[in-house]
């Protein structure tokens, strides 16, 4: 079984001024931004500038999408569709098809690849045969005919926006708002994006996910082109993500690496990610770098986290694994007889603080989310200085 492995980051002497390693612009993560407001920039090379309206190059005319099949049909995966996920394949073939409809036909086994059931995350190969059942298109809504509720949703999305251009949005997702639908979820980001469908019926696409109670940077692709490019950046680990958390106790050493295998453990009421052994069924390798930024005596620590991999609940499970669970975590907080300091809210103290990723059309997207209200309250009560230098930027990328 792969146990906790922690090794310090570069020693302080090497992190002195002028001793920083050379990295390309996509990997370069500068000092943390102040926590008081939202921030984003697009950078070209080593120059950083404020976001400006993005003017994409003129695109060639696109053929009208094929009509939705009214009966079962079989199509062949083309070279351009090679390695495309099943759900993205359906979205690309039939713009306007809702996420819930795609998930439903896949879950029921109505869609088959070479005669076999497929998962929505499975990747297709050129030449495979895909059986497609009859489909139903969600009618796109014209902006002028939006209901009052839809207009409010559109305004809510605008208020969350940290960065936006013709291809990409970065939202500051509030804690408590789910990214996708599920049991007991009445409102989620994916459904909210329905109000942004364009004239061709295409709506912005989720590129990655955040847990419901995690706040911060959520990347959205507004075009099919951007979705493909951004998904590829995540797959090839070109995206750099930094999270902030408040944890119980002070990790030792104060900078290190956590490497384990994680596997999902299902129960009647819930499911969690458990530490697993290499070779266990469903086990995936997970690596996280952490650095203590500031402490509140020995009871609490503000840590900055850089996940190298992107496993479900990775940061939450890893911090619990090293006995420094994230404050307010209902699934993984495992400290017995531990009392929450007065004035702090018992909510998950985890923020997707920053994302740096190559822009699909060149340059770099660099967005930073402010502390959510409950974490800002905790920072103020504990006297933590939110504009301190964030040492996680010197963590390796693998």
Give helix and strand order, one letter per element, not per position.
EEEHHEEEHEEHEEHEEEEEHEEH
Q: What is the average per-residue confidence, as pLDDT, rounded to a whole number?
A: 83
What's the end-to-end separation, in Å?
A: 20 Å
Structural class: alpha+beta
Please report the total strand number as a whole number: 17
Strand percentage: 25-35%
Report low-confidence residues grouped into runs of 5 or more.
11-36, 44-65, 139-143
Globular, elongated, flat, extended or rod-shaped: what is the shape?
Answer: globular
- Counting H and I runs of at least 4 residues, what is the number of helices? 7
Any idea what the radius of gyration is?
22 Å
Major sheet attributes: 13 strands, mixed
Helix amount, in percent? 10-25%
Description:
By secondary structure, the chain is α+β, with helices and mostly antiparallel strands. The chain is 16% helix and 26% strand. The protein contains 7 helices and 17 strands. The strands form 2 sheets. Strands 1, 2, 7, 8, 9, 10, 11, 12, 13, 14, 15, 16 and 17 form a 13-stranded mixed beta sheet that branches. It has a 4-stranded antiparallel beta sheet with strand order 3-6-4-5, with no helix packed on it. A hairpin with a 2-residue loop joins strand 4 and strand 5. The longest helix has 13 residues. It is globular. The two termini are 20 Å apart.
């Amino acid at each position: 079984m792969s146990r906790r492995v922690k090794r310090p980051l570069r020693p302080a002497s090497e992190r002195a001024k002028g001793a920083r390693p050379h990295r390309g612009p996509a990997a370069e993560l500068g000092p943390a931004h102040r926590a008081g407001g939202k921030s984003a920039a697009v950078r070209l090379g080593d120059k950083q500038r404020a976001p400006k309206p993005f003017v994409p190059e003129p695109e060639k005319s696109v053929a009208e999408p094929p009509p939705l099949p009214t009966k079962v049909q079989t199509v062949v995966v083309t070279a351009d569709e090679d390695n495309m996920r099943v759900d993205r394949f359906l979205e690309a073939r039939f713009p306007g098809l809702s996420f819930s409809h795609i998930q439903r036909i896949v879950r029921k086994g109505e869609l088959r690849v070479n005669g076999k059931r497929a998962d929505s995350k499975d990747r297709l190969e050129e030449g495979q045969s895909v059986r497609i059942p009859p489909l139903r298109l969600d009618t796109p809504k014209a902006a002028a005919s939006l209901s009052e509720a839809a207009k409010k949703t559109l305004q809510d999305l605008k208020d969350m926006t940290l960065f936006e251009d013709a291809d990409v949005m970065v939202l500051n997702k509030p804690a408590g708002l789910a990214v996708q639908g599920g049991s007991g979820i009445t409102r989620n980001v994916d459904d909210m994006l329905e109000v942004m469908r364009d004239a061709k019926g295409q709506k912005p696409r989720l590129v990655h996910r955040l847990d419901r109670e995690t706040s911060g940077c959520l990347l959205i692709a507004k075009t099919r082109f951007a979705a493909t490019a951004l998904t590829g950046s995540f797959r090839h680990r070109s995206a750099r993500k930094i999270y902030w958390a408040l944890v119980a106790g002070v990790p030792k050493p104060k900078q290190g690496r956590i490497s384990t295998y994680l596997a999902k453990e299902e129960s009647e009421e819930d499911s969690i990610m458990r530490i697993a052994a290499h070779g266990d069924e469903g086990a995936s390798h997970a690596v996280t770098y952490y650095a203590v930024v500031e402490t509140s005596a020995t009871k609490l620590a503000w840590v900055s986290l850089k996940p190298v991999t992107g496993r479900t609940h990775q940061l939450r499970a890893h911090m619990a694994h090293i006995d420094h669970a994230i404050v307010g975590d209902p699934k993984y907080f495992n400290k017995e007889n531990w009392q929450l300091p007065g004035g702090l809210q018992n909510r998950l103290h985890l923020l997707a603080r920053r994302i740096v990723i190559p822009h699909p059309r060149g340059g770099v997207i660099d967005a930073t989310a402010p502390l959510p209200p409950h974490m800002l309250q905790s920072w103020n009560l504990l006297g933590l200085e939110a504009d301190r230098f964030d040492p996680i930027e010197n963590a390796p990328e693998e």
